Amino acid sequence: MRKDSRLSRMLHVLIHMDQLDGPATSEKIATMLNTNPVVVRRTMAGLRDKGYVTSVKGHGGGWSLAVSLADITLLDIHHALGESSVFTIGLSDEHTSCPIEIAVNKAISGALIEAEALLLARFKDVTLDVLSVGFSDHMLNVSGALGKK
After folding, report:
1. What is the tens place of the pLDDT at every residue in 34-57?
2. Does 74 have pLDDT greater than 70?
3. Which residues contact 26 (CB under 8 A, 6 or more apart)?
4. How far apart are CA 112 and CA 6, in angstroms?
5. Which of 10, 27, 88, 103 places its Cα 20 to 30 Å from the Cα of 112?
6. Which pLDDT score, from 0 to 100, does residue 149 have?
7. 111 φ/ψ angles, rounded to the nearest 5 degrees
8. Higher pLDDT residue, 138 or 98?
9. Contacts of 22 (CB under 8 A, 6+ apart)
10. Which residue positions does the secretion signal occupy (predicted)?
11. Which helix (H) or strand (E) holds 38?
């Protein structure tokens, strides 16, 4: 099963956007993520629909943050991306009449539901500005280690 990395990728993009002096084009974001600009536009459109980013077409246009990182949580972005499962593991549904599959699904479903609820509750408490501070601290440490100011 392929993992869904859209959440971490969009968090990456939004924090970079906060560091920029102007809009980021879909092409620039696509290069950063090693993907296609069409994929970027489709994904960013969901964030625009929720009011987290804005877009301007044409020369000098691109994507910009519409709100402060302090006003966006991990849960907000998770919802804006379509609320895919937060886990790559899940219940089997290939042999729904098999008694073993039924027993296995019954045994693990409660744990998965509890774990997802706990994770999403934590997502609600983490704003993107907190991640950005970690980025800034990391950059200071890297610059210090390299002897840069």
Report:
1. 999 999 999 999 999 999 999 998
2. yes
3. 37, 38, 40, 41, 44, 62, 63
4. 20
5. 10
6. 43
7. -65, -40
8. 98
9. 60, 62, 64
10. none
11. helix 37-49
pLDDT, greater one: 76 or 6: 76
Q: How far is CA 78 from the centre of its chain?
A: 6
Looking at residue 98, the DSSP 8-state letter turns out to be -
Of 57, 49, 42, 44, give the one whose Cα is nearest residue 17.
44
Report the distance separating Cα 31 and Cα 81, nearest Å. 20
Count the residues in the chain: 149
Please state the pTM of the whole predicted model: 0.75
Return d(Cα 29, Cα 51) in angstroms, integer.
Answer: 19
Indicate whether 87 pLDDT > 80: no
- How far does Cα 20 stand from its chain's mean position? 19
Query: In angstroms, what CA-CA distances link 70 with 74, 87, 129, 132?
Result: 11, 26, 5, 10
